[in-house]
Amino acid sequence: MNVKIAKLAGTFFNPSQLPVEARPKILFFGRSNVGKSSLINRLLGQKLAKTSSTPGKTLSINYYLIDDRLLFVDMPGYGFAKVAKSESARVRKLIGAFLQQVKNVRLAALLIDSRRGFLPPDLETLEQILQKKFPVLTILTKSDKISFSEQKNLVTQLQKNFGLHVVSFSIKSTTGKNEIWRYINEAVKE
Ligand SMILES: Nc1nc2c(ncn2[C@@H]2O[C@H](COP(=O)(O)OP(=O)(O)OP(=O)(O)O)[C@@H](O)[C@H]2O)c(=O)[nH]1
Ligand SMILES: [Mg+2]
Fold first, then answer.
1. Which of 84, 151, 159, 162 is such that its CA lies 20 to 30 A from the CA of 114?
2. What's the domain range around 59?
3. Quick check: is 1 in a domain?
4. What backbone phi and psi angles, to 5 degrees, belong to 43?
5. Of the ligands numbered here, which is closest to the C-alpha atom of 53?
6. What pLDDT, in 10s, does the model give residues 64-93?
């Protein structure tokens, strides 16, 4: 897809702020600092989402509207120990409320840090996504940080153990970008 206009369309901190919104959506889930906002920026070809080397940057749900017809949803990162307990409880509630009411989800991208692999909070999130019957794409981020053979092992493991579609991605190269767009385009086809 050729993105012409992409813009921030909403930032939501509380369940009561969540809009009723019928447009097709692609959700981006993953631990704090895994690279969700960086991936969104790369896919859109512009720096719309705020990124940070400090985990816990995105603690709200952010909607990015693409050419007035598709929404990317940057979900708050989970699993970061240094975010205050009350704050992480709020984020968990927000994600739960969002999943309850969200309409027209075409794809849930679950981002996994290549160096860390699949951890218990990722499994919890995967379960939540599967419960909702959303199609899942697993994206191994920061693939520049591990060797090609380590990457291959991780991909095989995730495919074998969970039957997941897996794509390796890095912001340091063109790795993964076109393949991820192919999944998105396929998912939003009527
Ligand atoms: N080497 C490398 N660094 C990356 C890559 N993707 C993201 N980063 C870095 O990882 C850090 C976190 O990236 P973000 O995109 O802010 O991560 P996030 O998942 O949105 O984090 P939260 O908003 O805290 O949940 C930043 O310093 C990025 O520059 C990658 O592919 N390779
Ligand atoms: Mg972020």
1. 84
2. 6-188
3. no
4. -65, -35
5. 1
6. 999 999 999 999 988 877 777 888 888 889
Position 21 in a domain:
yes
**Predicted TM-score of the model (pTM):** 0.95
Pocket of ligand 1 (CB under 6 A): 30, 32-38, 51-53, 55-58, 77, 141-142, 144-145, 170-172
Smallest CA-to-CA distance from 13 within 61, 57, 54, 55 is with 61
Indicate the average pLDDT of the chain. Answer: 92
In a domain, 183, yes or no: yes
The pLDDT, as a whole number, for residue 88 is 82
> CA 175 to CA 12: how far, in whole Å?
31
Task: Look at residue 172 and tell me whether its pLDDT is greater than 80.
Answer: yes
Domain CATH code at residue 153: 3.40.50.300
Residue 72 CB burial class (10 angstroms; 0-12, 13-18, ≥19): buried
Domain count, the chain: 1
Per-residue pLDDT, 84: 77
How many whole angstroms separate alpha carbon 144 and alpha carbon 162? 24
Residue 129 has pLDDT above 90, yes or no: yes
Residue with tokens 């074998």: 160
Q: How many angstroms is it from 51 CA to the middle of ligand 1?
A: 6
Q: What is the pLDDT of residue 4?
A: 87
Query: Would 115 be classed as within a structural domain?
Result: yes
**Which pair of structure tokens corresponds to residue 72?**
């990317």
